[in-house]
Amino acid sequence: MPQANGQENASREATVFALVGNPNSGKSTLFNKLTGLKQKIGNYPGVTVERKEGTCYSQHGKPLTLLDLPGTYSLIPRSPDECVVSSVLLGKQKNTPKPDAVICVIDASNLERNLYLASQVIELGLPTLLVINMIDTAQSRGQTIDTETLSKRLGVPIIESCANKGKGLIDLRLAMSRPVTLPKSGTFNRINLAEATLKVIEGKLSESLNKSWAKWGATKNFLHEKIAAREETLIEKRYQAIQKLCEEVLQTSGTCKRTRTERIDHFLLHPIWGGLALLGVLGLLFYSIFALAETPIGWIESGIDTLIETANTYMPEGKLTQLITEGVIAGVGSVLTFFPQILMLLLFIGLLESSGYMARAAFLLDRLMGRVGLPGKAFIPLLSSYACAIPGIMATRTIECPKDRLTTILVAPFTSCSARLPVYLIMIAVLTAATPEHTPLLRAGLLLLMYLLSILGTFGFAWFFKKTLLKGNVTSSIMELPAYRVPSLGPIISDAWNRTKLFIRRAGTVILGISIIMWFCLNYPESKENPHTQLEHSIAGQIGKGVEPIIAPLGYDWKTGIALIASFAAREVFVSTTAIIYNIEGSNEDPEIKTLSQALHKQKRPNGSPVFTPLTCLSLMVFYVFALQCLSTIAVVRRETNSWRWPIFQFSYMTFVAYAAAFIVYQGGILLGFN
Amino acid sequence: MTSLCDLKPGQCATIERFLDEAVSVFRLKEMGLLPGTVVELMRKAPWGGPLQIKVRGSVLSLRRNEASLMAISLA
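Above: the input entities. Below: the C-alpha cells describing the complete assembly.
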C-alpha cells in the first residue's frame, strides 16, 4: 500500500503545464525548444486532434510535464480543436490530468488579437504565465510593449521571448520553477465581465419582451437570443477592454511603412507572378514526392528483397517460411516503402506552414476549390495524392473544418496515384497490341483519359458530398495570413519524423494482420498435383470463380477476378498476380510488360474468343481508376477518422462507383457495337 | 448599402453592422471584426477569390460572401 501511494505521489509530483496560444504564435517552436526530443505524439481519445506531450526541466532541474495544446483563436468550443483545448484546461479531458498551470503564448506583433485568447485563459482562473513571443518582429515594426504595466493590468507574470532564437527561455524556465500562483484580479476579472454583459443582456431582454410578448413561441426565441447575446456581447466587451489596454501599453513609433511581409505579399499574391510562383512551389512538391522519393524507395524495396532471400536461405523450406517471407515481410515491407514519400511530403508541408506560405497558397487556390465547396487548403493534400494517397490523407490535417477535411479524405483515393500506373500501362499495352501502327498517340491519349476521369471523380464527388452528406459550412472561411518567417528546421524535421513513425507503427499492425489473411486465402487449401493450379484451388481462386457472375457484365473472366481480389491489397499486385495466374514464365525479367502484355493478348476463353478485348481492357482500367484497392489507404483513413465507419463507407461507395463505371463502359461499348 | 466587398484595394472603412447574423459571423467577431472596427482592404484575389484584409494589426483572408455580410462606412 505505501508503495502504491508513493508511486501515485511521484506521478503527481511532476507539475503539468499546458501550452496554449494562437496558431502561428510560435507556440510549437517554444514547445520544441523547451522539450527537445523528449516528446510523444498521439491522438486524444475519440477525436483526431493531435496530442503532444513532452518533458522539460525547470531552471532548477525539476522535471515538468508540458502539454502542447492545438493552436486556437478562442476557448469557446466550436471546432474539435477548441473543444479539446477548453476541456483540457477545465480538467474534463479523459486520460489527461488537469494542468497545474497554463503557459499562454502570444505574438507580440499581433498583440490585440492575441490578447483575446489570453483574456479568456486568464479568466479561467488557472495559474498563468504569459509569454510575449516574437518580440523582435514587433520591435522591427517600431512597436514597444510596456510589459510591466500589462502584467499589472492582467494580473499575471509576463516573460518576453524570441523562441526561434532561444531568447527568453531561461526566464521562462525560472518562472516555471517558482511555485504556481493564481492570477491577481485585473482587467479580465470574471465578475467584471459578467456584470458588464448582464447589463447589456437586460437591455436586450426588455426590448424583446416588449416586442414579442404577445407572439406565440416568443419564449423560445427569447431564450435563444439570451444565449447568443451573452456570447456576442462578451466578444465585444472583451475587445473593448483589450483595445483600452493596448492604448495604454503599446507604443508604435515611426511612420507606417510597408512591412517585409507586405512587400513579399506584393509579389507572391500578385495575380500573375504569384500564380507562377505557386505553380513552381507545387511543381517542386510534386517532383519531390514523385521523383526524389524514388531512390530511397528503391533502397527499401531491395532491402526487403534481401531480407526475404536471406530468410529463404536460412530457414527450412515449407509453409512457415513462406508465411514469414510472403505474408509478414512482404506485407510489412509494403508499408515501409511509403516511408520516403510520407516523410518528404510532411517535411515540405512543415516548411510551407512555418514559413507562412501555406496560407498564401490557400488564398490563391481558394476560388478553384471553392467551386466544389472545399477550402483552398484542400488542394495540396489532393495534389499529393497523385503521387500517393497515404501522405495526401495525412496532409489533410491542415484543414480546420472537420467536414471539409472528411470530404477531402473521402475523395483523395480517386486521384490517380502512382500505384495505378503499372496497371494502366499493361492494359494499354494489351489494348494496343493489335494495332501497332497508331500506338504512341493512342497510348498517350488513353493514359490522359484515365487521369481526366480521376480528376472528374475527385472533384465530382467532393461537390456531391459537400452538397449532400457533409453539407453545411459550420466554420467561417476566415483565415490568418501570418507574417513570413524563416522556418526553423529542427522542429519541422522532428515533427515529420515522429508522424511518419506513428503511421508506420499503426498502419503496419493493421497491414500485418490483413497480409497474413491474404496469404492464407492465396495459399490454402493446398493443391496437391500441380503448383500452377494453386491459385485456382485456393480460397481466393474459389472467390474469383464465385464472383464470376457478378463481374461477367464488366467483361472479366474468373482469372481476372482473382487478380482483382488480390489487388484489393494493393493495386500494383495486379501485374504480378496476372503473371502467376496466366502462368507466364520469366515474368520478373526485364521486358516484363511486353511479354506479359503479349501473353495476355493471346488469352482465349473456352469458346475461343479473346479474353482481353479492347473493351475489357478499357473497362478494367476504368475500374482501377475508381476502386479503392489499397490496404494502406484504408488503414490511414481508419487512423485519420478515428473509426472504421468511414473507411468501410469509402471502400463500399468507391467499389460501387468503380463497378458502375466499368459496367457502363463495357455494356455501353457492346451496345454501340464495339466488341 | 456598401459592404466590405465593395472596397477598393488600399481603402479603409469602419464596420457599421452585420447584415445577417449567420453562424459564421460569430467567428468573424472573435477574430476582431466588430461594429466600429477599422478594416483595410489590402487586395482581392483574382476571379472572385477571397479578400485580404488588415484588422487590428493582423492580416486575414475571407471569402467575398462573408465580406458582404458586413455593412461599412468609408473612413
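Note for the figure: The longest strand of chain A covers residues 50-57.
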